[in-house]
Structure formats: structure tokens, C-alpha cells
Automatic annotation (TrEMBL):
GO terms for cellular component: cytoplasm; plasma membrane. Keywords: Annexin, Calcium, Calcium/phospholipid-binding, Repeat. One of its GO terms (molecular function) is phosphatidylserine binding. It comes from Pythium oligandrum (Mycoparasitic fungus). PANTHER family: ANNEXIN (PTHR10502), ANNEXIN B11 (PTHR10502:SF102). Gene3D superfamilies: Annexin (1.10.220.10). This is Annexin.
Length: 334
């Protein structure tokens, strides 16, 4: 399970006072000047926000609202548009706000963009899910579960609603024993391949309750007993986006960086880049780009930076490359 929220996200959630860097007010003033007057200075915005770490960008968004009594994302929303505008809004928010915004965009357009939803909602820690739920309600005055319940259908609906319930149990060697491994592997089989008609609810609940170390052991036990792994079982028992979501969950646990490298390439493969998916990915998984970049280059024989440069254009490309080059750690204001 990958943790992606910076420290400041939990400070805000827990109502802990933020100690801002001494020069943050000057940075907020620069942004204010870039977005007021005769049109937006997009170049200045890109230079100010693009090179920042996720935590630094979050601190800027929090402080800007305190200073000017308006969310930075609202100001940018009115001043930029298109692919650049979408990415600019993402980096003008804290990461929980950016995820809430992506979810809202995915559900409120013409048809639900399910491929943007499940990477955000499955495989999250209880702590991050609680922050996300609260943030969504604060931004849109709507309960996340209620909204998704109305928007989704079929097996995918059931998977997402169960993901929201925070079913995963903390790993304990005294509980997650060899016997528990065999029990859960058999539970998955009986609810899936061993049953005439899949018991989707039991299968997904069992899967989502497994902490990473336990799931790895369950997958090994399943493979040894049935000749193939849990992913094969999912692919034979589910279809469509439901399959994609469950496979994503398993791979995010067992081989996270290989999965994320493939997803990043997929957003740029084929006829035309999926700019929304690409922007969402780079902002959400920014803390892990240092691990993803070498895997990407080794597999595709081209650097991630070169790949993005060749598949995007204009100021959107410029901002994407700033994000790719930005520090992934807590960062430092300068």
C-alpha cells in the first residue's frame, strides 16, 4: 500500500496549526500578481508552482486562502483552461483536494470516467481515505459515498462501495498466520472459481481485508493450490472495469512500481495522449517518480521526460516537465 499524502494533509485534517516557511507570503503575493490585472501570467504561474514538491504546493494553497480569503484553485480556474487549466488546478490544491477534484470531474461529465476513479479509491489506507472523504465533503457539500452510490452500477459499483468501507485489517503475525493465509485463499476460491456463479461480495471483501504482507502470502498459497494466481482468478470471474479495479488493487500491493510504470505509459500510448489521466498520475504519484523513472527508462529505452516531451505540447508540456523534475520529498522553499 503506497502512502501518497504529505504531512501537511494530516495536519490540516487533525486541525494542527501549520508552521509556514518564512517566505511563503512573498510567494503567495507573486501568484496573486500573476493572476490579477490584464490577464493571467501563465508563464509566471508555471515557474512559481511547477518546480515545487507536493507538500510545498499544499502549503502554498493553504496559505493563499488565508491571505486572500479565496481558494487558489478558484482563481486559477477562472484564468486558465483546457489541459493546462486542469493540471494547473491540480497543483494549486493540496493532494486530497486534487483527488477530490479528479473524482468530481470523473463523475460529473458526460458519463463516468471509471478509469480515473479506481486508482484513487482502491488500496488506500484508512487514514488517507478518511482525509479524502472529509475533503470531498468540504469542497462539494456532498458525501462521497452517497455520490458514488448514485453514479455507479454493477460489479464496479460494489467494488468501489466496499473500497470506501476501509476493510483492510492491520497486519499482525499472531492473526495473519499460515492457517489464516490458507483460509483466505480458500475463501477467494470458493467465492470465485470454485462456485457456480461468482459471490462477488465475499470475494471482494476477502481481498480488500488483506494487508499487503498477508495478500502476498495468500497469492502464493492460491497459486500453489490452484495452478494460477489471484489475478488470473479475477480475470476469469469479473469483467470490464471491475476486473481492472481488482487487478489494480492486487498489483498495487504486489508489484506497485511495475504497475505504475505501465499505467504511466498507457496514458500516452495509442492514438492521442489521455492528458487528464497523465496529469492526474503525475500529481498523485509524484512522491514515487524517483522510483518509477528508472523502471520506465529501462523498459521503454527512453526517459520519462523525453516521452512526455514528445507526446505533449505548449505550456501544458512545460508544466508537466516541471512537475516531473520537481523534488518528490517534503521540499524546501527557496
Amino acid at each position: 500500500m503506497l502512502a501518497i499524502y504529505p504531512r501537511s494533509a494530516f495536519d490540516v485534517y487533525n486541525k494542527i496549526k501549520i508552521n509556514y516557511p518564512s517566505n511563503i507570503d512573498a510567494i503567495c503575493e507573486e501568484i496573486y500578481k500573476a493572476c490579477t490585472g490584464m490577464g493571467t501570467d501563465e508563464e509566471m504561474l508555471i515557474k512559481i508552482l511547477g518546480p515545487r514538491s507536493p507538500n510545498d504546493r499544499a502549503l502554498i494553497s493553504y496559505r493563499y486562502k488565508e491571505l486572500f480569503n479565496t481558494p487558489l484553485r478558484d482563481l486559477v480556474k477562472g484564468e486558465t483552461s483546457g489541459d493546462l487549466g486542469f493540471l494547473m488546478q491540480l497543483i494549486c490544491m493540496s493532494l486530497p483536494q486534487a483527488e477530490a477534484y479528479i473524482i468530481h470531474r470523473a463523475c460529473k461529465g458526460a458519463g463516468t470516467s471509471e478509469h480515473l476513479l479506481y486508482p484513487i479509491l482502491v488500496g488506500r489506507s484508512d487514514a488517507e481515505m478518511n482525509v479524502l472523504k472529509k475533503t470531498y465533503f468540504e469542497m462539494y457539500e456532498e458525501d462521497l459515498a452517497v455520490m458514488l452510490n448514485a453514479e455507479l452500477s454493477g460489479d464496479f459499483h460494489q467494488i468501489i462501495m466496499l473500497a470506501l468501507q476501509e476493510l483492510q485489517i492491520e497486519y499482525k503475525s499472531s492473526f495473519h498466520t499460515k492457517e489464516k493465509v490458507e483460509e483466505d485463499a480458500e475463501m477467494l476460491y470458493k467465492a470465485g472459481e470454485g462456485k457456480w456463479g461468482t459471490d462477488e461480495g465475499t470475494f471482494v471483501k476477502t481481498l480488500f481485508s488483506c494487508p499487503p504482507q498477508h495478500l502476498e502470502n495468500v497469492n502464493k498459497a492460491y497459486t500453489e493450490k490452484h495452478g494460477h494466481d489471484i489475478i488470473n482468478a479475477i480475470q476469469s470471474e469479473f469483467g470490464g472495469t471491475a476486473t481492472d479495479a481488482l487487478v489494480y488493487f492486487v498489483r498495487l500491493t504486489l508489484e506497485p512500481f511495475k504497475l505504475l510504470t505501465e499505467r504511466l505509459e498507457a496514458s500516452m500510448a495509442g492514438l492521442g495522449t489521455d492528458e487528464m489521466a497523465l496529469s492526474s498520475f503525475l500529481v498523485r504519484y509524484h512522491p514515487y517518480l524517483s522510483k518509477i523513472k528508472p523502471i520506465f527508462e529501462d523498459k521503454h529505452k527512453i526517459s520519462l521526460r523525453e516521452r512526455i516531451h514528445g507526446d505533449t505540447e505548449g505550456r501544458h508540456r512545460e508544466l508537466l516537465l516541471h512537475v516531473v523534475d520537481a523534488p518528490s520529498s517534503e521540499g524546501a522553499f527557496a
